[in-house]
Design the sequence.
C-alpha cells in the first residue's frame, strides 16, 4: 500500500437527480473547502454515470453513511446506473430539490454546484451547501487503506 491509502474519510454516497434520471455512487474522496459560505468538494470518476448526470444539473446530495449500511454502499459502489436502477426496492426520500436521500444515512448534505475542476480521470465538483441535516447521532463508516473500516 502507498501513503495515499493512509488518507481516511467518511464513506458517502453522492446522489443526483437530473430531470428524473436518478443515480448515485459511493464516494470516499470528499472534503470541506470553505467555511463561509459552507462548501464541499467531491471527486467523481469521468466514466461514472453519476458524473454524466451531475454535468446535467446543478444540485447534488451527499449521504454520509452509517456502519450498518454496507449493503446499500455495495449496491451504489459496484453497479452502474446506466443499466441498473440502484433505487429499485430502496425506501429513499427526496429533498426539496428532488435530490435522493438514502436510508442508512447518518447525515445528508445538499449542494448547489458552484464549480468544476478537471482532475485527471476525475472531475472535482465544488458545491455550496444549501441544506444539511444530521439524521442520527452516530459515527460514520470510514474508508481507508482501500476498504471500508
Sequence:
Amino acid at each position: 500500500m502507498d501513503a495515499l491509502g493512509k488518507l481516511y474519510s467518511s464513506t458517502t454516497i453522492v446522489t443526483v437527480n437530473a430531470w428524473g434520471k436518478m443515480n448515485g455512487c459511493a464516494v470516499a474522496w470528499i472534503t470541506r473547502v470553505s467555511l463561509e459560505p459552507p462548501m464541499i468538494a467531491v471527486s467523481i470518476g469521468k466514466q461514472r454515470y453519476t458524473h454524466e448526470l451531475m454535468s446535467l444539473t446543478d444540485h447534488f446530495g451527499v449521504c454520509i453513511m452509517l456502519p450498518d449500511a454496507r449493503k446499500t454502499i455495495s449496491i451504489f459502489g459496484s453497479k452502474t446506473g446506466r443499466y441498473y436502477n440502484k433505487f429499485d426496492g430502496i425506501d429513499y426520500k427526496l429533498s426539496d430539490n428532488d435530490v435522493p436521500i438514502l436510508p442508512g444515512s447518518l447525515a445528508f448534505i445538499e449542494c448547489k454546484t458552484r464549480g468544476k475542476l478537471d482532475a485527471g480521470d476525475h472531475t472535482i465538483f465544488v458545491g455550496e451547501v444549501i441544506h444539511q441535516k444530521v439524521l442520527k447521532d452516530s459515527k460514520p463508516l470510514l474508508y481507508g487503506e482501500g476498504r471500508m473500516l
